[in-house]
Amino acid sequence: xxxxxxxxxxxxxxxxxxxxxxxxxxxxxxxxxxxxxxxxxxxxxxxx
Length: 48
Description:
The chain has helices spanning 3-18, 22-47.
């Protein structure tokens, strides 16, 4: 359950290190949002 969040955080962290600009924050937010949505959808499909 925590693996997708960890991956998203790592991607955002290293992304901010390599791209120290506002674009990196936007990319991180998009990745985090997509990860959360995917996790919720997968969990709902398993329980349904």
